[in-house]
Amino acid sequence: MSITLIVKTFNQEKRASLVLDAIRDNRDRMHSGLKNAVIVTRDQARFVTLYQSWQLPATPADPDTQLAKLFAETIFCGDPKVKLEQLISAGLDEHFMNEMVASLQPDGSALLFFIPRSYLIDERQLLDSLSAYEGKLHKTTFSNQIVDTILESTTGERSKQ
Question: Which residues pair with 8 in a beta bridge?
Fold first, then answer.
């Protein structure tokens, strides 16, 4: 099974949440993958904050939603050099990772979409929607091996897929 990771970075801290709201409104929630969106902000002091885009407090956490947040934490939080080396050694594209991390500047934000192949989502439609907004768009596809590497290094578990 493969997974698509789409990241759009912006030069303004609040821009990612505004764009996600606009996509939801314009597309009438046709993108089922929007529930796996994570908003990442970096302030002037380079402090990173993650926001889950859609989570009802009374419902159990969706494993894919948790994986999206875990991916965002792994990529953007902590010592990026160590974490990037883990992801690259697991098979994630090195150029993709370096470009994505470098594009999240202070006072910037990013939208991260974690889309397993089992989701019924038109990725082209999502990419077209994101392309309408100023910022850098990044996309890659990878196998569960990378998911397993992240899970093992952060939680000691393996994916159930």
Answer: 111, 137
Reading the block at residue 149, the tokens are: 């590497």
CA 160 to chain centre: 20
pLDDT digits 0-9 by tens, 37-62:
888 898 888 788 877 765 545 445 55
If we measure between CA atoms, which residue out of 1, 17, 4 comes closest to residue 122? 4
Q: Do residues 77 and 50 touch, judged by C-beta distance below 8 A?
A: yes
Q: Which residues contact 142 (CB under 8 A, 6 or more apart)?
A: 2, 3, 5, 91, 92, 93
Give per-residue pLDDT as tens, 83-97: 677 777 777 788 888
| pLDDT tens per residue, range 121-151 | 778 888 888 899 999 999 988 887 777 777 7
**CA distances (Å), 37 to each of 7, 85, 89, in order?**
9, 24, 25
d(CA 80, CA 104): 12
Residues 6+ apart with CB under 8 A from 92: 140, 142, 146
Q: Give residue 26's Cα distance to chain centre.
A: 21
Domain boundaries defined on the chain: 2-154
